[in-house]
Design brief:
9 helices; single chain; 4 strands; mainly alpha; about 5% strand; about 190 residues
Length: about 190
Amino acid sequence: MISSINILLTITGAWIIALSLVVMTAAILLLLHRTPLGGLLREHLPDRPRRRMFLASVSFFLTFAGVRLLTYMIHNDIGPFHDVSMGGRHIHHMVWGILLLLLVGYGWLAEVGTGDAESSRFVGRLMSILYGAAAALTLDEFALWLNLRDVYWAREGRASVDAVILFGALLSVGYWGAPLIHAVFRRGRRHRH
């Protein structure tokens, strides 16, 4: 009985990540739907894909920073935080990222949050935020999938940071370069016809 209570009281990284994602997502959505910030976002980024790219970028970088901080604290025994283990097997945070990516991908295949209604705008923003968070959780452990062993704190773990920087740059290019990319594709279509 006491060991069951101890298990329930253990603050694992998964609970902290889940709680942090819920708080971050709720805060961003509240700011966008309950303050003038949502209107400013639509006014200054009238293109829906750019708004989604922007929200995914913000979520990506906030999640990456939070996960790196949490893993540093776990690794150095700072605070009451612990790794997630099931049956003696460490469950890496990329597992939660992959599951979340699958969920968001399925939602977008089903065209969840792609309409013009206010509820679709809310769900579209939610999906964008979750996509950015899931990508950060997954890419933060890129070195693990590349090396097929846990090298998070080893020299090879630098590959994860490089992957995050490259993907973050891709998100930023998609956001900042969207008008140029659209113009290039429009011009290419006009020349073909």
